[in-house]
């Protein structure tokens, strides 16, 4: 998840929603990507969630400078929006698997269900990314919004893409 002082409230709400809906919140660890080293970010997280296991990694905005089209809307022209593309380069090798969430989400079910999804991995050299798809926006239209239960039980589904 990205971490920025301008979106700190959203990030805190996202983290809280994951902790509240997790059957084992002590098993969750968070890896935040930030474009600036701001001590108040770490202090705010520590103060709000004193037992949270987390680490903040630096994302270098120069990695995407000149690669972002000026024709996109202004909200998307911030380099931190593209940090997720560089996760494999930023996170240490001992972090073998992550679930990436935008900082403007609220989790309404235990993310352990998503964590336990079995992926077919054809190559250990190239990571897979998964994007949750709402049944309302899905071209297959899987009925009412649900959790990670799958289409047969009214939930959304996950699409997997090679990167």
Automatic annotation (TrEMBL):
GO molecular function: glycosyltransferase activity
UniProt xrefs under InterPro entries: Glyco_trans_8 (IPR002495), Glycosyltrans_8_dom-fam (IPR050748), Nucleotide-diphossugar_trans (IPR029044)
Record pathway: Glycan metabolism; pectin biosynthesis
GO CC annotations, alphabetized: Golgi apparatus; membrane
Protein keywords: Glycosyltransferase, Signal-anchor, Transferase, Transmembrane
Coiled coil: none
Membrane-crossing residue ranges in chain numbering: none
Topology in the lipid bilayer: Single-pass type II membrane protein
EC identifiers of the protein: 2.4.1.-
Main location: membrane
Subcellular location: Membrane
Low complexity bias locations: 126-147
Annotated stretches, region: Disordered: 125-163
Assigned protein family: Belongs to the glycosyltransferase 8 family.
Protein name as it appears in the record: Hexosyltransferase
């Amino acid at each position: 998840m990205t971490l920025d002082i301008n979106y700190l409230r959203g990030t805190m709400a996202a983290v809280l929603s994951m902790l509240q809906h997790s059957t084992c919140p002590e098993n969750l660890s968070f890896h935040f990507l930030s474009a600036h080293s701001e001590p108040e970010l770490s202090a705010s997280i520590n103060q709000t969630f004193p037992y949270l296991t987390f680490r903040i990694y630096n994302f270098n905005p120069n990695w995407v400078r000149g690669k972002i089209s000026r024709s996109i809307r202004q909200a998307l022209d911030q380099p931190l929006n593209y940090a997720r593309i560089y996760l494999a380069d930023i996170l240490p090798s001992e972090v073998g698997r992550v679930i990436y969430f935008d900082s403007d989400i609220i989790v309404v079910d235990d993310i352990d269900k998503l964590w336990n999804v079995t992926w077919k991995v054809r190559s250990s050299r190239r990571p897979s990314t998964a994007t949750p798809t709402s049944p309302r926006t899905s071209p297959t239209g899987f009925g009412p919004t649900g959790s990670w239960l799958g289409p047969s039980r009214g939930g959304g589904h996950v699409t997997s893409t090679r990167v």
